Amino acid sequence: PALIVAQPDLGTGMRVAASGAFVVFLAGLSWTRIGLIGGVGVSGAGLLGWQLLHEYQRNRLRMFLNPEADPLGAGWNIIQAEIAVGSGGMLGKGFGMSTQAKLDFLPEHTTDFIFAVFAEEFGLLGVVLVLGLYAFIIGRGLWIAANARDTWSRLLAGSLSLTFFVYVVVNGGMITGLLPVVGVPMPLISYGGTSAVSLLAGFGILQSIHAHRRLVAS
């Protein structure tokens, strides 16, 4: 993760670190030790991290706390995403009727902020439906992990499933202002070849783990 952060790509580095933390958790490390390590890591990041961040990364954190401080600059993305989500209401405006995307108010509306466009077009009901599908996929992945044939397969399947969960939470939090803006796509919705290939490869690995479980059981 440190080499990825040095590129600089803080968002991807944090996701890789989260994947490692999931493996440690699934391996059975006690909650006491996880809390101790996490506390030391957060304290160290708070003391040294700000000085190591690039200026654009600092601006993202500042705008997360107060996007209205620069509504036409660094805070633009967050504000426009929140407007898109809020204007969708309960039922949305309808497919292809997102004014934030059509009028180019919302940047990156096919990649990082695609879920804000989805919320505007399909409303709260559409968002709940998609989140329910995501929950099913994550739950199925964790079920595969729980029934894997060996420890390695269990840790791999669990890490892949929880990494998918992180993608959903971070992107959803980003468009609603609950988390800082980072370059995280919404799985299976955002446009992008690399993210699609990596996600589908992860699903293939999960299917392989499940298939081998059946072979062993038989």
User: What is the H-and-E element order?
Assistant: HHHHHHHHH
Query: What overall form do the CA principal axes indicate?
Result: globular
Structural class: mainly alpha
Largest sheet: none
Gyration radius, in Å? 19 Å
Strand content: under 5%
Structural description of this entry:
The chain is an all-alpha fold. 70% of the residues lie in helices and 0% in strands. It has nine helices and no strands. Helix 2 packs across helix 8. The radius of gyration is 19 Å and the shape is globular. 28% of the residues are buried.
Q: How would you describe this structure in keywords?
A:
single chain; 218 residues; mainly alpha; globular
In short:
Helix content is 70%, strand content 0%. It has helices spanning 2-5, 10-26, 31-52, 55-65, 76-87, 99-102, 114-146, 151-175, 193-217.
Helix/strand layout:
Blueprint: H1 2-5, H2 10-26, H3 31-52, H4 55-65, H5 76-87, H6 99-102, H7 114-146, H8 151-175, H9 193-217
